[in-house]
Specification:
The chain contains eight helices and eleven strands. The chain folds into two domains: 139 residues, Nucleotidyltransferase, domain 5 (2-Layer Sandwich); 87 residues, Nucleotidyltransferase, domain 5 (2-Layer Sandwich), CATH 3.30.420.40.
């Protein structure tokens, strides 16, 4: 069967998922996908979800061509858990490790959007993680900005053309966008990041040889963690 077989992990938000995908369009196949809205941490469910997906698809470790992970921005704890699991699986199986930016994968929710796309995750503290894209003819997102973290009202002031808002960050601040004719909101059921979309992006990274070194791979946090902020404040105050 043609196409690279990729195990993908998505733990950037509270809705974690695992998928097994093969190839890229037009011959793309979703072999298995498991999504869980977590009431407990990803560490309690992630490896069990991987085992379920592998069994459901009839796949063993040797069958894999690569392991992919959504590497941020997103929940600091979720990203660390997902990357740690992906590193362990990649190293144990001897397969390449691929890191897919979370907002890039989220843009795959709307592959044929005609104009500007803005992908948003809730960053807490009344802020969002945001990045802008334009979708190419092959359905892949082309970034037109780097990921940033900022208050949603400030993001709103930056819109200069019609824009499609995508992701749980857009849903979290729905009332802010209401009444703005230049803004279209992707429906709620398409708002969550998905491991399947991580796999769709990862197959192109694998073809380009853009693999990660498991020994040094780190999440893309965009914003400093609370521990880092507290440490800086302690240093500033002696």
């Amino acid at each position: 069967m043609a196409g690279h077989l990729i195990l993908s992990l998505e733990t950037a938000t509270g809705c974690g998922s695992v998928s097994l995908t093969r190839g890229a369009p037009p011959g793309f196949q979703l072999l298995a996908e498991c999504s869980i809205q977590q009431e407990i941490t990803h560490s309690r469910r992630l490896l069990g979800s991987v085992a379920w997906a592998m069994q459901a698809a009839g796949v063993v470790w040797q069958d894999l061509d690569a392991v992919a992970v959504s590497n941020g921005p997103g929940s600091f704890t979720g990203l660390r858990i997902g990357l740690a699991a992906a590193k362990a699986i990649a190293m144990a199986s001897g397969k390449p490790l691929l890191g897919v930016p979370t907002l890039d994968a989220l843009a795959m929710s709307c592959p044929w959007a005609p104009g500007l796309v803005c992908c948003l995750l809730d960053a807490r503290k009344q802020e969002v993680y945001a990045a802008f894209y334009r979708m190419e003819e092959n359905g892949l997102p082309k970034p037109v900005s780097r990921p940033v973290v900022l208050p949603p009202a400030r993001l709103l002031d930056s819109f200069r053309e019609p824009v499609l808002l995508v992701g749980p960050g857009a849903i979290a601040y729905r009332e802010l966008w209401t009444g703005r004719n230049e803004i279209t909101l992707l429906p709620d059921h398409l708002a969550q990041p998905r491991a399947m979309h991580v796999g769709l992006m990862a197959v192109h990274l694998l073809a380009a040889g853009r693999v990660l070194d498991p020994a040094v791979a780190a999440p893309l946090y965009v914003r400093e963690s609370e521990a880092e902020i507290n440490l800086q404040q302690m240093r500033q105050h002696g």
